Each structure stands twice: as C-alpha cells, then as structure tokens.
Amino acid sequence: MQNPSGRLSPPSAVTVDAPARLHLGFLDPNASLDRAFGSVGLTIDGCGTRITARVADEMRIEGAATDAQRERIARLLDQLHNAYGGPPVAIDVQRTPRAHTGLGSGTQLALAVGTAFVRLAGRTASTAGLARLLGRGARSGIGIHGFDHGGVLVDGGRSGSTSGIARLPPLLFRQPFPDAWRVLLVDDTSREGLHGDEERRGLASLAPFPPALAAHLCHLALMRILPAVAESDFDAFARGITELQRTIGEYFAPVQGGVFASPAVARALESVAAGQTAGIGQTSWGPTGFAFVESAGEAERALAAVRAASRDTPAIAYAVVTGRNRGATWRATDLERCGIDAA
C-alpha cells in the first residue's frame, strides 16, 4: 500500500535473519605496525540469529534465551527510540547462538534489532551507522561487514592516527567461501568466552605484540590464506589458518588459559587434525573451536573423530556448517502479502 506521497508505507512487522560469524584471528592486536587489530573472518550458515519485530502498543520482548539477553534488547530499543523515534516495538527472538561462544551473537542481535526497528519506523540507516549507535565493532569489523556481505572477509583494523574516532574498520577483502568446503564447530557448553570487563582487563594485561609477528600474520593472510580461498586451494588454506590460529592463540594464552580456552575442545580438534588435513582453531575468545575440512565426506570423518575424543565429555556439542556467501536478509510481512520479496 502506498501513502499519498507515493512512498511505500512502513511495514507493521519485519523479520531479520542474520548470520553467525567465525573470527579467525587478529593480524596486529595492539598496532605494533600502526593499525590496531585487523581481522580475518567468515560468515556461516547455521547458528544464526532470527528476530521478528512488530509495531505494538508497548515495548515487549518475547523468546529471549536469558534475562541478560532480554535486558540487552531493552537497552537497544531505548537507544533506537532515542535516535529515531517511532512507535513502540515488540521483539520476538526466534533463534540466537549461545552468548559468549565466539559466534558474534551480540553484534548480530544488535544489528538485527536495529535493522528491523528503522524499517518499522519508516527510517533508513546504514549498518555502520547502526553499529556505531549501538556500540558494536569496538575492535573487529568482521561481524558488521559480515552482516552486509557474507563470505570470507578481512578488515583493515583501526589507524593509530584516528584514535577516539568511532569509524568502522575498512573492508579490504571479500571472497565467496568455496561451496564444497565444510566447517565442523565444536563447543564446550560448560564454558563462556571472555567478555565485558573481564575481556578488557585481559587485553590490557598482555605484553605488546611483537612487530615481527604482526608482519608474519599479515604476510600469512595476504600470501597464503586469501589466495587459497580465491583459488579453492584447500591444503594451503588449512595450513595458513592453523598457523594463524596457533600464533595468535599463543599470544592470548596467558588470559584464556591456553591456545584454546577449552581443553576439551582442543583435544577434539587435535584428534581431527591427527587423522586428516584440516584447518583448526578457535573463533574469538571461544570456547567454540572449528575444523575446516575439504568436503562433506571429510566432515563425516571429522565428526567421527570428535565423537570418539569427546565420548567422556558430555558438555561437548558439535555441528557441521557451510560458509554463507550473503549477508543478513529481512522480509516485511505487509510486502509478503502483496507478493513482493523484500530480502
């Protein structure tokens, strides 16, 4: 339906599907070569976030997994109302990853809620603008760029000359993840990764990152990992990711208890790498770890190895997923009734 000005009326309900992401490693955590952080990442199908937002008489939040998640959504809605106005909104949380497991759940939830809200309010906003308003992307830009684009991503970190400016790290590389490759995720459900004040204290306690290691990681990304993705060279990709993860994991080991935050996840992934070519590591602060494998058949082999290694560890959960080569999608209920695809 159009209003008298000829513009489409805002929908009364919007559903947003946002992908989970794997953070595959920082390139320079504390700007030893001028730009801080810089990240390699991948969006994945499975484990994503889905919310539906509706115009309502009063703010309501349904389906939240925890009280903390409910409180976070309420804060997001307050920030959005202050910035954009608009009617009260009810949020129905239909699916989210477990929080603080390395899948980018906080950023994807914030961007999904923000995207739905501005559409219900009849406003427009960029993903970068929503992220800035909602306090996301303080270090890595992978989750924000992944929300827009999907695929394998590299951001350029933050320049030391722009400290204090809330600017999204620039997207330097985006390439589709090869369709045949698979990712085995292994989660220790008894643990959470570092977050909040604990994360900030942990980062502050670390020694300066050696410039030579930053140079090594940048070279590894530019001359091994990214060409391997572009050429679908799985063996080179697996070696590069494993080396990147080992190097950055050793740096973070003093604050997360080892190269992997969960010893059980480490054992499971090492059992995979012992029997087949795989790129193994941990996403962000974990505890979720991953093993990249070359095909669906290799994923079945990897699953069997993880099951055997985790037989006595009931907290271990696992799943096989594919890369996602598109960003978030949204659909408006009113438009769907008219047969219009808004995604």
Automatic annotation (TrEMBL):
The keyword Hydrolase does not apply. Keywords: Kinase, Transferase. It comes from the Bacteria. InterPro entries: GHMP_kinase_C_dom, GHMP_kinase_N_dom, RFAP_synthase, Ribosomal_Su5_D2-typ_SF, Ribsml_uS5_D2-typ_fold_subgr. Residues 73-141 form the GHMP kinase N-terminal domain. Residues 226-309 form the GHMP kinase C-terminal domain. The keyword Kinase applies. GO terms for molecular function: ATP binding; kinase activity. It holds the Pfam family GHMP_kinases_C. This is Beta-ribofuranosylaminobenzene 5'-phosphate synthase.
